Amino acid sequence: MTREAAILAQGLTKYFRTRGGTVCAVDGVDIAVQRGETFGLIGPDGAGKTTVTRLILGLLTRSGGRSAILGYDSMHDTYAIRERVGYISQQFALPPDLTVLENLRFFARVQGVSPAEQRRRIPELLEFAGLTQFTGRLAGRLSGGMKKKLALACSLVHEPKVVLLDEPTLGVDPVSRREFWNLLGNLRAEKGLTISVCTPYMDEAERCNQVGLIYAGRLIASDTPQAIKRLVPGRLLEFTPSQPERAAARIERMEGMLEIQTYGLMLHVFVDDVAQRQAEIVAALATEGIACEGMREIEPRMEEAFISLIQRAQRQQEDTAHPAQRPEEGP
Predict the structure, then answer these.
(1) pLDDT in tens, 16-34
(2) How far is CA 215 from CA 33, 88, 190, 323, in A?
(3) Is 206 exposed, middle or buried (CB count within 10 Å of its CB: 0-12, 13-18, 19+)?
């Protein structure tokens, strides 16, 4: 075993055979998560987040590249990885007819935790997850948030050094999501745990030390949340026009408008110069009989950066698939 990143992927590639031919689901992905960091992998549905996670865990056979956890190769050292890693998949299912305590004991036995160690660890995990008062409740009767906490506790019962979570808070209410992430933060602070999370929620991505944005199997950006947000162009104006669709169509033809994003009735417009373009937008829309409310400059969030980078990747993909026709040269 060599000393290196806790979670590592180098040129990671995966092809699937289908009836229509071969499909590249993961295309040369590079990831390096240092010990004690929290890494967030974000991307649209079908981008490859779950496939990357399963390749790194060794649950899928890679087609190319390298992947390892704590220096152990994903393909060749699967037992060593299983002993040191906790994992919650999208379909992670707690036996519903077992109680909270019985679930923890069940997963402890699966992971080979001795009875003596169970007596030490399980009370600590119950306290950590706030489930001490619910040991006799059936898992099937827990709320969504409590099920997630129990799933996390079960994944930690063998005291792993690394935890990989695939959309662990999907479908959970905002309060429970915040409580779950507070637990993750405590784990990282107290245990030095390395955490990798696939998430569709941009506010969760903001909590990570590093964020990777994957699209169509390719990692199109990987950096700190602050650095990712700096990749979007220009400065950002937010306002609510009286006629959003007409306003967007009018604005996109104006000089200095770098990008437009729609949020319900609200527009987010990236401009090259706030002072100049703000006045021009108001004047241009006024000539169309469109009023603007609450126009102000705001700092881009991860959500704006995510949309901007995905749209940029889509345009690049379209340009590659349909290159512009060049005029033929004369003799």
Answers:
(1) 998 888 999 999 999 999 9
(2) 19, 22, 34, 20
(3) middle
Give the pTM.
Answer: 0.85
Query: For residue 269, which of 293, 295, 288, 246 has the smallest C-alpha distance?
Result: 295
- Which residues fall within 8 angstroms of residue 187, CB to CB, at 6 or more apart? 156, 163, 193, 195
Residues 133/59, Cβ–Cβ less than 8 Å = no
Q: Which residues pair with 71 in a beta bridge?
A: none
Amino acid identity, residue 26? V
Both structure tokens of 18: 């289908």
CATH for 7-228 is 3.40.50.300
Sheet of strand 162-166: strand arrangement: 85-88, 162-166, 194-198, 38-42, 210-215, 218-223
Q: 100, 126 in Cβ contact below 8 A?
A: yes
Task: Give domain limits for the chain.
Answer: 7-228, 233-299
* CATH 3.30.70.100, domain 233-299, yes or no: yes
Q: Biggest alpha carbon distance in the chain?
A: 87
DSSP, collapsed to helix, strand or coil, labels residue 254 as coil
Token pair recorded at residue 69 = 């956890």
Contact indicator for 210, 39 with CB cutoff of 8 Å: yes
Mean pLDDT, to the nearest integer, of 125-137? 94
Residue count of the chain, please give it. Answer: 331
Task: Return phi, psi of residue 63, to 5°.
Answer: -90, -25
